[in-house]
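User: Hi! I'm working on a homework problem where we have to compare a predicted structure to a textbook description. Could you give me the structure for the chain below?
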Amino acid sequence: MLYQLYDFGQWTLAPLRFVAAMVKNAAAPLQFSVMGRSLAAGAELVERTTRHYNKPEWGLHETEQHGKKIALNLEKIIEKPFCTLLHFARTITKQPGKDGQKDAAKDSTRALPKLLVVAPLSGHHATLLRGTIEAMLPEHDVYITDWQDASTVPLAAGAFDLETNITYIMEFIRHLGSDVHVMAVCQPAVPVLCAVALLAQLKEACQPRSMILMGGPIDARVNPTKVTRLAEKHPLAWFERMAISPVPLGHAGVNRRVYPGFLQLSSFMSMHLDRHVSEHMNLFRTLVKGDGESAARSRAFYDEYLAVMDITAEFYLQTVERVFQNHALAKGTFAWQDQIVNPAAIEKTALLTIEGELDDISAPGQTYAAQALCKGLAEDKKHHYFAKQVGHYGIFNGKRWRKEIQPIIRDFIRKHNHG
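Assistant: Happy to help. Predicted structure tokens:
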């Protein structure tokens, strides 16, 4: 009934959104007055706080390389039921030759390190990493996992759990080759470490040159947070009862059991409710003042932040149980297809762990735990970076990410870019 209630709520709020949109449009001619801007601002807030946000576009159409603008073409490399591997491919236009013709061609990226970014599968779309990707593009050949909203995947496509997640990542690494570097942002730190360890255990030739784990719960016992305490407080049956709902009619994934994105969003919002209320009040004030630039930044952030996706029930429950309750990877009991995952088998893939001092989702120490688990790695293949006064989202987005953290990753990749 949970999902049905949400859909019913969206349906009943539709008239209110319609009226708010009409009021905003009607107030447009009055933008020269404070009263007119106030009316329009209030109407916009009503519309924005009651609407359903769809997945945003990537909007990355070009990057800069060696001081020149390079056009980007978003390619689908592998399409699977629950994920599409995307490539931000470069294109160039050759200068006119003797025949005076121009020819569009793929830009050679062999000189650029190949980077696979594994996006979080925790409620938000992969587009949340737009700023992350934008900062890496000038100096890297970038691929990303674009996870599918579970509510759009028909039941006939089968199940998708944490082990399947690991299998997908292994397949993507194999496809991209042994010269790839893998970067896990937040939640996928665990499946990425498992995937790389399994490739090493299977003695496959295709092992990444490096892996970067950023703000992920490798060992959630370290420095407990609200997230970890909640998982430890309740049995798995409680999460299944309280957080899982079948997808209702009207969606392609009807009857698939999911952890709805709107529940995860509610959880995220409640952790910093005062901040989000303050941000919306600031948006109102900037609209009244006519500060279009500040309002645009706020709109862009919340258009992304409030766009959420559903996660399969089996993935969510297996993650809660293995990562946050049993701490299976840290204890050496994590199994993939009945094979115990052993990070100590990793000898070729260099490891960089990154943490933020103010991270209240994956607290300091939880990601660093990977350093001890990778016992087979030489010390010169390990590095840890601790970002002071940086929160969870600041690790991979914003000014500190661009100016401080991204250069650390770039230099680490350069150092280990030769097999």
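For your comparison, note the following. The radius of gyration is 23 Å. DSSP finds 14 helices and 15 strands in the chain. Good luck with the assignment!
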